Amino acid sequence: xxxxxxxxxxxxxGQGAIWIGQDAGGxxxxxxxxxxxxxxxxxxxxxTGGMNNNVIIGAQAGENASDLAYSVAIGYQxxxxxxxxxxxxxxxxxxxxxxxxxxxxxxxxxLLALTAGTKNTAIGSNALxxxxxxxxxxxxxxxxxxxxATGGSNNIFIGLGAGTSGGNxxxxxxNSAGAGVTGSNNVFIGANSGSGVLSGSNNVILGxxxxxxxxxxxxxxxxxxxxxxxMLRFNExxxxxxxxxTTPNYGSSGAPLISTGTSSAPSWxxxxxxxxxxxxxxxxxxxxxxxxxxxx
Length: 296
Prior knowledge:
Elements (H helix, E strand, L loop, with lengths): L1 E3 L13 E3 L17 E3 L14 E3 L14 E3 L13 E3 L12 E4 L13 E4 L14 E3 L15 E3 L12 E3 L13 E3 L14 E3 L14 E4 L5 E5 L5 E3 L14 E2 L8 E2 L6 E4 L5 E5 L2 E5 L1
Parallel strand pairs: 1-2, 2-3, 3-4, 4-5, 5-6, 6-7, 7-8, 8-9, 9-10, 10-11, 11-12, 12-13, 13-14
Antiparallel strand pairs: 14-15, 15-16, 17-18, 19-20, 20-21
């Protein structure tokens, strides 16, 4: 191996490793194997007990870790105190607490608090910073998923500040999409979309729609335009409320939908006449809600 620096590689026992930097690979722990390891930096992989085919670069990167086999840690304290293998952590204090599982963390304090979650991908400063035990999450963008705490799983957050504060199986695409939401099984597409849903679940919001009127709603489909204006809404039963009013109007039984052309959204009219009538030529005319149902 190659040892350069005071106490560099002092605790090493394997072959073919490279240790560069004061106390790099030093300390009291002796790696079970350190073959093929590349370690550069002050106290990098210091007092670390599991090394094999690693790349550890940065001051205190991989320090006090119990197992770093087949991992890449680049940045100050990246993968520090890790107990898991097969992880990639690039950035200042990226993935510093993981004991089992892990994933890919790229960015300042990405996956900082993760301890036992598996198959997480965090790319961007503070991405998935607070999550501790969640699994199968993907966050791309600065502060993406930064508010998701404890065990949220199966979420996808893409965009600056995109992501919920809790819940599972949410899809948030767009800057601040899903911000503050704690519910599950939501789809938010568009900047700030769904940011007022809070604890609501099973919603689909397409377009940059947000606001207090969304507070705790569930099972809705909302469509908006590029200016964040609500255009169309369906509730959990499939009832339709057209127009931009934040107070839904699903009409009344039998009410026709009346168009005003291109000047405004259609609206619900008054339910029409219903009944059976005889025509002048002796035929039977059946009217339902103002519409001809049959002539016989």
